[in-house]
Amino acid sequence: MIHALDIDTKVLQQMGGEYILAALPINNYRDIGLSFERSFVTKAGYWKVYLYKVR
């Protein structure tokens, strides 16, 4: 679990970034301007992936 991700999502958005993929859940996603979309696992994959959208 990522307790406090330190990323400037405004700059990420200015650079054209729309989503963040993470291998671990991000606890402070709301505080840094992200919204949780979903998590998923594929049959061919080994890890659970967490998808966050930049707000």
From TrEMBL:
Q: Which InterPro entries match?
A: DUF6044 (IPR046107)
User: Superkingdom, according to UniProt?
Assistant: Bacteria
* Alphabetized Pfam families for the sequence: DUF6044
Mind telling me what this protein is named?
DUF6044 family protein
